[in-house]
Design brief:
Blueprint (H helix, E strand, L loop, with lengths): L4 H7 L6 H8 L5 E4 L4 E7 L4 E6 L1 H13 L10 H14 L4 E10 L2 E8 L2
Antiparallel strand pairs: 1-2, 2-3, 3-5, 4-5
């Protein structure tokens, strides 16, 4: 149940791809990872060449707070570049040489990043 907590928390924000996220990542436990960009939770699936990169609770709060304080004028949730860089940094931290090939937002603050390992 604890492994589902990050996904269920993010489900409160929106449910566009919730069934996909739960089906594909729901039983795996996330790993906390601090990148130069932000605090994140990562569920890595090396056998499938993809990972789920999610904002950690404090990073998500910070992004939401900035949106609220500026009455929605702060566009802090365009995170594709940050999430891709976080995925690249995480892969390097595990000793894998890889390049990210795509990133798509599944839910707000939750990105699926695909990658290829260098042979």
């Amino acid at each position: 149940m604890r492994a589902l907590l990050p996904i269920l928390c993010l489900a409160l924000v929106g449910c566009g791809s919730l069934s996909y996220t739960v089906k594909e990542y729901g039983v795996q436990r996330p790993v906390a990872y601090r990148s130069p960009q932000q605090n994140t939770w990562i569920i890595d699936q090396p056998d499938r060449g993809r990972m789920l990169v999610m904002l950690g609770p404090m990073s998500a709060f910070g992004h939401g707070y900035a949106q609220g304080v500026t009455l929605g004028l702060a566009h802090v949730m365009d995170l594709k570049e940050d999430m891709t860089a976080t995925a690249q940094s995480y892969l390097a931290s595990t000793g894998r040489k890889a390049r990210t090939t795509s990133a798509r937002e599944l839910l707000r603050g939750q990105w699926e990043v695909t990658y290829e390992l260098h042979r």
